[in-house]
Prior knowledge:
The complex is a heterotetramer.
Chain A: H1 10-13, H2 17-22, H3 27-57, H4 67-70, H5 72-75, H6 83-118, H7 127-146, H8 172-200, H9 213-245, E1 256-257, E2 260-261, H10 270-304, H11 311-324, H12 340-367, H13 377-394, H14 396-400, H15 402-408, H16 412-442, E3 444-445, H17 448-475, H18 488-492, H19 494-510, H20 512-524, E4 526-527
Antiparallel strand pairs in A: 1-2, 3-4
Helix pairs in contact in A: 3-6, 3-7, 3-19, 6-7, 6-8, 6-9, 6-10, 6-16, 7-8, 8-9, 9-10, 9-11, 10-13, 10-16, 11-12, 12-13, 13-16, 13-17, 16-17, 17-19, 17-20
Chain C: H1 18-49, H2 67-96, E1 105-112, E2 115-120, E3 154-157, E4 159-163, E5 167-174, E6 179-183, E7 188-192, E8 198-203, E9 208-214, E10 227-232, H3 234-244
Parallel strand pairs in C: 1-5, 4-10
Antiparallel strand pairs in C: 1-2, 2-3, 5-8, 6-7, 6-9, 9-10
Helix pairs in contact in C: 1-2
Chain D: H1 21-49, H2 57-60, H3 63-88, H4 92-122, H5 131-158, H6 164-167, H7 169-199
Helix pairs in contact in D: 1-5, 1-7, 3-4, 3-7, 4-5, 5-7
Amino acid sequence: MSHHDHDHHGHHHDLPFWRKYIFSVDHKVIGVQYAVTALLFLFVGFTLMMLIRWQLAFPGQPLPGFLSTLFGDANAPGGIILPEFYNQLGAMHGTIMIFLGVVPLSVGGFGNYVLPLQIGAPDMAFPKLNMLSYWVYFIGGVIMLFSFFVTGGAAQSGWTSYAPLAVIAQQGQTFWLIGMVFLITSSLLGSINFIVTTVQLRADGLSFFRLPFFVWAQFVTSFLLLLAFPPLETAGVLQLMDRLAHTSFFMPSGLVVSGEALAISGGGNPILWQHLFWFLAHPEVYVLILPAMGIVAEVIACNTRKPIYGYKSMIYAVVFLGFMSFIVWAHHMYLVGMSTEMSAFFQVTTMIISIPSIIILTALLLSLWGGAIRFNTPMLFAIAFLPMFGIGGLTGLPLGLAASDIHLHDTYYVIGHFHYVVAPGTIFALFAGIYHWFPKVTGRKMNEILGKVHFFFSFIFMNGVFMPMFFQGLAGVSRRLWDPTQYAHGLSTQPLNVFISFSAWGLALAQIPFILNFFGSIFAGKKVDQNPWEATTLEWSAPTPPPHGNFLTPPVVYRGPYEYSVPGQKKDFWPQAMKETN
Amino acid sequence: MSHSEAELKNQVKVYISVFVVLMFLTMVTVAVSYLHLSTLAAIAVALIIASIKAGLVACYFMHLISERTIIYAVLGLTAIFFLVLLITPVYSV
Amino acid sequence: MNNNYYGWGLPIDISTHGASVDRLIYVIHWLMLALFVGWLTYLIIVLIRFRARPGHTAAYKERHFKAPTYIEVIVALIEAALLVGFSIPAFHAYRNVVPPADQAVQVRVVAEQFAWNIHYPGADGKFGKTDPKLISRVNPIGLDPEDPAGKDDVKTVNQLHIPVGQPVIAYLSSKDVIHSFALPVMRVKQDVIPGQEVRVSFEATQTGNFEIACAQLCGLGHYRMRGFFIVDTPEVFQNWLKEKAPK
Amino acid sequence: MSAPGEIRYIDHPHPVSGVTNAKLGMWCFLASEIMLFGGFFSTYVLLRAGNPAWPTGSHLLNVPLAALNTVILITSSVTMVMAWYSLAIKSLPKFKMYLGLTILLAFAFLVVKGFEYGMKFEHHIYPAKNTFYAIYFTMTGLHGLHVVGGIVANLYYLFPGSKMWETNPEQFTGRIECAGLYWHFVDLVWIFLFPVLYLL
């Protein structure tokens, strides 16, 4: 931290270490806390997946080397992953990646750090609430991780936790539910903070149509979190009641498990869980993708040196997308036996929601036209996001149409589809964001060569992992199978599984340059001034790293967010907060 | 919120009248429940009365009757999704 | 098990309705491919043509493109056409068009962790009454021994036999958790929800030995919840039924 | 113009939105609460629609006690709004009296609720008995937790929190307005719970 000698910051320097860096109320410290914690969780989630990949490539064979004894006889006797353990790995991979990794990084990390800076605010509207959000998230994460060590292990009913399976599951599921209640509460507090901050604390002159697209994306995301998460909290409470108080919200009458009639009243409905779950979990998909689109828009505008194409239509599209995302959820449930009228309705809404996605993607692609494109690491990740998200979006079409969904539902096609959206899509955007804003946070740039090595190998291996899944899915291989070779169609596609697994382990190796780069650059990266990318948005008008309170004088905004290469200017960027010409 | 003196004095009268109406409606809804109406009629009457009561609380105690656009916008959006959540599941089971 | 049935793409289709599903899958993949190749070509051209280099500056003024708007409208129209022309009718036919019960082979499929109990009505064409309370190890579907209609019922585990060229109505239910009844070669998949009975109908066009798969995570044995799905000629099927009938 | 590093619109409304940060935040929170209870009401509708033998609440539950609780909660809403009004006319003692009354009424509500639960438990009626009791206990229990939360917040404003009146009366009045919004919302939920669970 560089020291700025300003009277009004004086009180901050007096704070003890634990108030300044651990229980801090500064949005930047909280943002970094979120980002680092989320990166660790991404690493954990990725590790779980690599174990899954071993079992899928070599079903029933003992894990290699020291791994064979690491997980104990309860999980992997003789190094052979048991189906129970496999299901834990699967459920927790999904939960950790979504709720503890990607969302906390994109919303908690980038949102917290960048949004107040981009709107010229000194902090979030409710700093203490912000701190509380982080710590509630942290506790939720600890509960989730702890559940691996309770009797019976962690939750093993999938990240979707469908009842009745989840209700009759071992106690790991209870920890999962309690962990989820914490994570949901954290998200709710965070989203309130984001909404109020965006509405109330924008700098003078920063009207809504001068906001960077990233802020818009976060703003819409916050509404999704605010209104879609509570029904999942409801569902979580109901499932906890079913598990602990033996009620029957999700349990119909006459259940017989392993030959024993369940001693419950019955009268519930398992579909209810799916409705409440997907009412959140579909908007959640957009929570995963919108901030990523925001990051990509920032990086592309900055590195093409020209304004974003169709800025306003992108904003209308993102608002419409957010709205529509609340009324498409049942397309995850075409095959539960709902009426064809209802499925027709949800097919129509699903096709409608594809239009704004295409508009945003098209606008980002057209933004490249006429630019002077700089191929630095953040830009490479942002460019790669476009076709990768494109594949993810397009493969949603056959899943969104009920007739083709008959064959593809719950197969590897689904896994390929949403991973293309989230892994080479969102996670690439998050990498772009890390490389892009790292200099603002630390005052140093990350190494370009290591960054490019990281990018190219990640790009190759990402596709190596997810592209074959479409062929497995078309072949009809079901998800979540401990040993797909039990089936003839699984046997015929098994070579693909081996290929995917090696790609996944290659992807892990490709992250080594990133990890070296990340930690190395904190100490040895090239020192930069406050605006190394020559960008226009407000965060680059603040000192680097920004002091407590962010700006030396409250910024005033004079123009839109992407005024690059404006004719008549000496330089090819014209910052939002600059009154005179540049 | 800032109010002039006269406005504030008037407020108390409003609160008291709303209180009286709420008490009256509570009595009505309990009384109606002893009438043994058909299920549908009973539901309709009870929900209409509850909605009126809720409306009074929201409008006068929570001052929604003279609130800002931003609050209406947030609540309008919430109301739409609330109805979607309330109605859709029962039709698709 | 004949491995020519399966490859790295759609498995063979032996159903009467599957062609409509496959057609949609193919059409939509062609559309996806066309769009993707278009984007990618554009992307590569743009990245080369507009790379930063000495003497090249970015253009501030937004060039207005008409083509993307047209493409978006066309894509939207194609989506609407797929929806109205393919998906909604095909799904409607799959879910709602059921052959008359007296002309179809009727079968109950009762899923449990981790097996498919198959229940045929037997010679009288009537299923015996069942009750979850009667379920035991020897009576996995809880068939009422008092009910005369159930005396001749045929029960198997993981053995679904059907005749070729004859419509089949399957009534799916579950004893414990949600399963999903999948016949990949028939393009049939239907979630099996405990507490409900869901009906699905299909007709096979060729004989052979295939599989029933479980498509919904149902516990630690999900991977081995595999059944045999055997399509026979009507004669062989009838003989098999007689053979399996309780004596 | 505020000093750099200072968060604006804590005690006075934003010129465009017309509200303070806290008020917008509280309404957003209430919006999420509406969706939370929306999930429960949706559950109720779905389970009831799926069960032709759904019991009539008034045959199983104690309507007079619930009606008493309705009266108590509505009265507490009035005292709550009067507490805010007392601050608006700059009278801290009146505020303390009305807020104290609100807290007492909230306790009374919980005591009545406790009797109601106790009577059920005496007859060995627990949430697991059937889905009607399951939803009755879950929804009233969650509502009860909201009442407890309101008591905790109001106790804070009655004792340690009221010091702010000396330093920043506008902000304190704003806080009480928000506490009031929350409290009225708790009342509002009960207004629906009462007929839905007890009368129909």
